[in-house]
Write a structure and sequence with these properties.
Number of strands: 11
Structural class: mainly beta
Oligomer: single chain
Distance between the termini: 46 Å
Largest sheet: 9 strands, antiparallel
Number of helices: 0
Length: about 200
């Protein structure tokens, strides 16, 4: 299991923001906020990216509608997350994480007709892909004997849905692909030393 929970002991508060704009109407925007007292914290962020894209096909709409000559292949991406944690006692704390991601992309089709000069070439059409992903994770940490004994229990869940429109298959399952994944972990670290005197 990959530990995707990253604790950030915020003491105070912070705000972050950024923005970019470029050619092909490409934009990148981010914003974040967090606060805490060193023991309890909340941290959240959102980021988005989009572009009108550009036409990469040299053949145009060779297969007729719904393709359009000069079709630009753009994209939209959005990601948001929130994480938090609290020290419930001197020996036990909990931490959690939630994330949502969405991506949309416009694509070109590819010719497999076997016609010389066309085979393997891309052409303008209405192909699109949509992907949504949800992720939840949480952990509890028990610390005993002044840190000599640490037990962490954690669990995570991920749900991903991908869809292809306009004739573009998505993955090995056709136009729709669903995937769920869950995991649990329970590691224990100890540093116990026993000494005796005679």
């Amino acid at each position: 299991m990959i530990n995707i929970i990253t604790r950030k002991n915020v003491n105070g508060s912070f705000i972050t923001a950024s923005g970019e704009y470029g050619s092909d109407d490409t934009t990148n925007l981010t914003a974040g906020y967090g606060f805490g007292d060193g023991r309890t914290y909340v941290n959240a962020s959102i980021a988005g990216a989009a572009s009108e894209g550009y036409d990469v096909s040299e053949l145009g709409a060779i297969n007729g509608p719904p393709g359009v000559d000069g079709d630009k292949d753009g994209y939209d991406n959005l990601t948001g997350y929130v994480s938090g944690g609290a020290e419930l006692s001197s020996i036990f704390r909990v931490d959690g994480f939630a994330r949502y991601a969405y991506s949309y992309a416009e694509l070109d089709g590819q010719d497999f007709s076997g016609v010389p000069g066309l085979q393997g070439q891309s052409f303008d059409d209405a192909s699109q892909t949509h992907t949504r992903s949800y992720n939840l994770a949480g952990s509890g940490t028990l610390t005993l004997m002044d840190g000599a004994w640490v037990t962490i229990g954690s669990a995570s869940y991920t749900n991903t849905h991908g869809a292809g429109n306009g004739g573009t298959p998505f993955g090995a399952f056709g136009d729709n692909s669903y995937r769920n994944k869950s995991a649990c972990s329970h590691p224990t670290n100890s540093d116990l030393r026993i000494s005796s005197r005679h």
